[in-house]
Amino acid sequence: MQEKGSISIHSENIFPIIKKFLYSDHEVFLRELVSNAVDATQKIKSLGTLGEYDGDLGDLSIEIKIDKKNKTLHVIDKGIGMTGEEIKKYINQIAFSGATEFVEKYKEKGEGSGIIGHFGLGFYSAFMVADKVEIKSLSREKDATPAHWICDGSTEFELKDGDKKERGSEVILHINEDSVEFLEEHRVNEILTKYCKFLPVPIIFGETEETIKEGEGDDAKEKKVNVPKVINNTTPLWTKAPADLTDEEYKDFYKELYPFSEEPLFWIHLNVDYPFNLTGILYFPKIKNDFDIQKNKIQLYSRQVFITDEVKDVVPEFLMLMHGVIDSPDIPLNVSRSYLQSDSNVKKINNHITKKVADKLAELYKNDRKSFEEKWDSVGLFVKYGMMSDDKFYDKAQKFCLLKSIEQYKHFTLDEYKESIAGNQTDKDGNVTILYATNPGKQDAYITSAQKKGYDVVLLDSPIDSHFINQLEQKLEKTNMKRVDADIVDKLIDKDEKAESVLSDDEKEKLKKVFEEAINNSSMTVAVEALSPDELPVSLTMPEFMRRMKDMQQTGGGMPFMGGMPDQYNLTINANHKMASKILKAESEEAQKNIAKQNYDLALLSQNMLNGKDLTNFISRSVEMMEK
């Protein structure tokens, strides 16, 4: 048997699905209805511009009203309006979008670009919260008859002549018992502020008090009156030309978006019309090291309607720490306009934003390096994150990525720093070694030892630096990176130089045995080395590889099995320090072990690893030694 035909879809079956499951969050019904009202308003404005409507446009604001007594919510516009036939066409036919039809009809005349709707489904979100919905409408057509449509949420409807006197439409929702929250002013205001804050048509909800003057001159008196409250900014900053804006306006807009945030460092104004439409403003905030809590601060809009703050596909991951707004009608959304869908435009926009950020940072560095350096603690997170995430960004950013010297209090580019330290920090194999510290306070003894050798140390203390260090080693030719406390100073940079020991091999072996017995810790690898007499008597270090893997694992990454491995440390005894000879000359084995244990505890203390009972014993032992 062979047969062809068309699948039959019955509205009585699909209608409940649309009402209940199309939108994950019931509050978006108000976004959809207000968006429809904006579309109707934009259409009448377009027809007026084209000369196809010669009536008085008048006040084009949209009003939202609550009637608690009758349990109704009203969305009223003064837009294009509908005849009874148009209601049957656009409302009764599910997924027939009047917005799409209008755009297609007028796109050659340059109108319709401000129309929001596409799918024709948004109106039915009203039935998520309402038992009955009414539409009262009067078309812009001359001598049109008002229409009144009523539906109780089933597939049955009533359409009759209405009594509306003014052009436009009023949608009346009879709120159901489960959704009475949408009859509360604070809840409706919350939704309007979230989704409609920047719509291009004034949205009125409630009243606000204003002071006006009555009379003239000295007789003028101030009077407080209630006036309609417009809840939105119809011309947000991103819709304006960058050349027309001042720094103060950008900062004020940032305060409007994030009222309790510190002033931003700087910003990027996006304004693209080919090969896709994209506008927006991205701000670089002042970032602290707990940067995870800063994410999800970029808001995505489509023609000034808020969509989401989940923009990870549009904005590169490393720029998710930025704040601001992106608006694009070319970002594909799912049918409910609640989620992004991936396509080539999303990737193009993502690449464009990356390029714009790189160009802006390069410009700031070139034009005012001093100011750029002052902002580096915050900007550095973006730059390093980007360099690890995107090779193209790395190629641009390596020219303005900075390293900060602890001793010199000076910033260097990567090339500048390598050149600065090459003379004294090149090992026997010709590799330049960059020494870094993550906590100068705790690592001060090691930093001091390095500085005595003429070595420089940079500060790398951000949450992502453990990963960034690996990136630099992979990218920079003949370059090693070592944390300043990863080994004794003579081994940090292997120059194949060996110091003479004042102890014989037998004495060194005996000293090693004393320490092993005194500390009794299998996690410690004990070695006796000939170091400068000025160096510490005992040094405790964790090998660079193990420490780095553990650091990386704490911030996500590294090798998972490292977390389950016990910490391994190297304990290095300075054979040339007078303390070594003192231990060997001690009057008894017990005295030798006491001095060894004291020096071991000092090494632990220098690494902030001495606590509890061991710390108490160390203090008691120190007091006893001072009393002798």
Automatic annotation (TrEMBL):
Matching SUPFAM superfamilies: ATPase domain of HSP90 chaperone/DNA topoisomerase II/histidine kinase, HSP90 C-terminal domain, Ribosomal protein S5 domain 2-like
Keywords of this entry: ATP-binding, Chaperone, Cytoplasm, Nucleotide-binding, Stress response
InterPro entries: HATPase_C_sf (IPR036890), Heat_shock_protein_90_CS (IPR019805), HSP90_C (IPR037196), Hsp90_fam (IPR001404), Hsp90_N (IPR020575), Ribosomal_Su5_D2-typ_SF (IPR020568)
Entry binding sites for ATP: 32, 36, 77, 82, 97-98, 337
PROSITE patterns linked: HSP90
UniProt keyword Transport, yes or no: no
Superkingdom in the source lineage: Bacteria
GO molecular function list: ATP binding; ATP hydrolysis activity; ATP-dependent protein folding chaperone; unfolded protein binding
NCBIfam families tied to this protein: PRK05218.1
Annotated family: Belongs to the heat shock protein 90 family.
Protein name according to UniProt: Chaperone protein HtpG
